[in-house]
Specification:
400 residues; alpha/beta; VC0802-like; 2 domains; nine-stranded mixed sheet; six-stranded mixed sheet; 14 helices; binds adenosine-5'-triphosphate; binds magnesium ion
Length: 400
């Protein structure tokens, strides 16, 4: 018996004629994500993807414990719904019995508290002389005979013995849930406005889960925002890249622009004018880097800059669609996702953000269009946007 990873596809299987291109992208993404785990064979049959080592001594496939790391990496690839570690073997019903016996013994060794089980079977190879109900029934009886301490419970068993009869036979139990979605690369690229907060990394994760590769832009106001604040954003980009793949992180030197704004624009309007400039710089960078939309972590009503009026005032300066995947999402739900993707601990590190440093104590929460015109009349917006784009440093972020 050898170990093999079984990964189940989700939404892709609902696709019509273009399903093939989604599957090719998914396999390519898996190859890229798993390249540090040795030479692998990654192939597909029906709605499953199988991953096995080309070399017998690949340590990641040695046992359940060592496979955990590579399985976790598979769960980070969008398009996969769940992952199991299976044992693969050849032969007829006799081999199914002997290998299942060996497998159940190893499951019980690791989980001595297990008392009940059931057998579930799938038969892809129709030339196998027994059908699925027969396999379940016969094999269930065989296991009861060999492991008298076990009982069958079809409703709520402690573990399920899954048998699949295909070109080879497979036995496995349990699964690790993945992040579903569509393979990154099946949608156009987006430019994520990535701050050091909780929301924007989650927003990037959510758009990547719909197949969108990402670039990121971060507005940095050194020395008002520290090197640690910048490092935090780099770390967050790296966490997001574990799901989205390679990211170009564009760091805009925002200091002079913010100082000009503070000097030449009314205090209570700075939140809006600053965000308008951010969006314009982001759009220019997006165009330069082949991105088709902007993404922010805004959520309606969360803070002063996220009222409908403030969002409208910010939105109108750009032509590109601005995607806001968190717009109707509760903060706690966002925090839950942030924890799940491993970003939360980094997001809550207490380094200042450029928005919080220059923000007015009482920002105008419902700005009128004429307020905005008035607030910007002493600003040379075009020059500010241009200087922002020019003063950008780009860092390549790779997940591993
Ligand atoms: P987050 O948790 O993502 O920081 P927030 O709740 O702090 O969001 P705001 O400060 O109003 O809300 O920012 C709203 C959105 O604007 C952010 O989600 C992010 O997309 C973008 N943004 C804010 N500050 C920056 C920054 N310094 N660099 C890049 N994008 C930013
Ligand atoms: Mg923030």
């Amino acid at each position: 018996m050898s170990n093999i990873i079984l990964a189940r596809m989700g939404e892709i299987t609902l696709k019509g004629l273009n399903r093939g291109s989604f599957e090719i992208q998914l396999k390519g993404n898996l190859r890229y994500r798993l390249k540090k785990y040795g030479k692998l064979r990654i192939y597909q049959s029906q709605s499953r993807i199988w991953i096995e080592p080309k070399e017998e001594d690949n340590p990641y496939f040695a046992n359940d414990e060592s496979a955990r790391e590579i399985m976790k990496a598979v769960t980070q690839v969008f398009g996969i719904v769940s992952v199991s570690l299976a044992r693969k073997f050849e032969g007829g019903y006799d081999e199914v019995c002997s290998n299942t016996r060996e497998y159940v013994a190893s499951v019980l060794e690791n989980n001595p508290e297990y008392k009940t089980f059931k057998v579930s079977s799938k038969r892809g190879n129709k030339s196998f002389p027994m059908n699925s109900p027969q396999i379940c029934c016969e094999l269930g009886g065989y296991i009861l005979d060999k492991f008298p301490q076990l009982k069958v419970d079809v409703k709520k068993p402690d573990f399920i013995v899954n048998i699949e009869i295909r070109d080879y036979n497979y036995v496995y139990s349990g699964k690790m849930m993945a992040h579903r979605g569509l393979p990154v690369g099946t949608a156009g690229k987006g430019m994520l406005l990535l701050s050091g907060g909780i929301d924007s990394p989650v927003a990037g994760f959510m758009m990547a889960s719909r197949g969108m590769p990402l670039d990121c832009v971060y507005f940095h106001s050194y020395p008002y925002t520290s090197d640690q604040a910048k490092q935090k954003v780099i770390d967050l980009a790296k966490i997001v890249s574990g799901f989205s793949g390679h990211i170009n992180l564009h760091i805009v030197n925002f200091t002079q622009i913010q100082l000009d704004m503070v000097k030449n624009s009314p205090q209570d309007m700075i939140t809006v004018t600053m965000r308008r400039i951010m969006l314009q710089i982001a759009e220019k960078l997006a165009l330069k880097n082949d991105c088709k939309c902007l993404i922010t972590g805004e959520s309606l009503g969360q803070v002063a800059s996220q009222t409908l009026e403030a969002i409208t005032a910010t939105n109108e300066v750009v032509k590109m669609p601005v995607l806001r995947p968190l717009i109707g999402i509760d903060k706690q739900a966002t925090i839950d996702i942030s924890r799940e993707i491993g970003a939360f601990e980094t997001s809550i590190l207490p380094f200042e953000d450029c928005c919080t440093i220059f923000v007015a104590r009482h920002p105008k929460t419902h700005p009128h269009p004429e307020d905005v015109t008035e607030a910007e009349k002493n600003l040379d917006i075009n020059a500010m946007v241009e200087s922002g784009v020019m003063g950008t440093e780009t860092i390549e972020i790779n997940p591993f």
